[in-house]
Write a structure and sequence with these properties.
176 residues, alpha+beta, two-stranded antiparallel sheet, 19% helix, globular
């Protein structure tokens, strides 16, 4: 494992309870607790995260969210059996993931999601994930991008500083 560049200690995992289990996996609920030396003033970007949870556990996770009154809007990923992201989206996490699973029942085995504290950043996080996923992802027609352009800088929130490339206008330069 790579050495952390910071001298600050990682957060400690505190498992509260087991939410779901099978013969292969268990799904636990918990929280990250800051270690001494970590400033309390640092705000977390995410309220809730889940990483590569088996689809069989989705109803248990959804039930837990409902019982606690937690917001279930966020950015989600559906993964194949090798753990590769096959679909990225945002919105009602559990509804959308179940729809993806119905559309590809044999291909998708795991899911991840990220509930963002500031909802204004959901679209930006989704955009980054889509661009990173590239050709591995399956898209609905609204999100399909088959060209190789840099993307639209307007996908990010107003006030964001940017650096972008632009194609020169006029006659194309000859390569010699």
């Amino acid at each position: 494992m790579a050495k952390r560049s910071s001298s600050k200690k990682q957060a400690k995992k505190k498992t509260d309870f087991q939410l779901w289990s099978s013969t292969t996996w268990t799904v636990n609920c918990g929280r990250l607790v800051p270690m001494p030396g970590r400033p309390n003033s640092v705000k977390s970007l995410f309220r809730h995260v889940a990483e590569k949870i088996p689809f069989e556990a989705i109803d248990s996770v959804r039930k837990e969210f409902r019982s606690r009154g937690w917001d279930s809007d966020g950015v989600y990923i559906a993964h194949d059996s090798m753990g590769f992201a096959r679909y990225v989206g945002r919105g009602q996490i559990f509804q959308r993931l179940k729809a993806r699973k119905r559309a590809a029942p044999l291909e998708l085995l795991y899911f991840s999601f990220y509930v963002v504290g500031n909802k204004n950043h959901e679209r930006e996080i989704e955009t980054i994930m889509i661009r990173l996923g590239g050709a591995h992802l399956h898209f609905n027609e609204r999100k399909k991008r088959v060209d190789t352009t840099a993307g639209n800088i307007r996908d990010y929130e107003p006030g964001t500083r940017f650096i972008e490339r632009q194609r020169r206008r006029g006659r194309a330069a000859r390569l010699t």
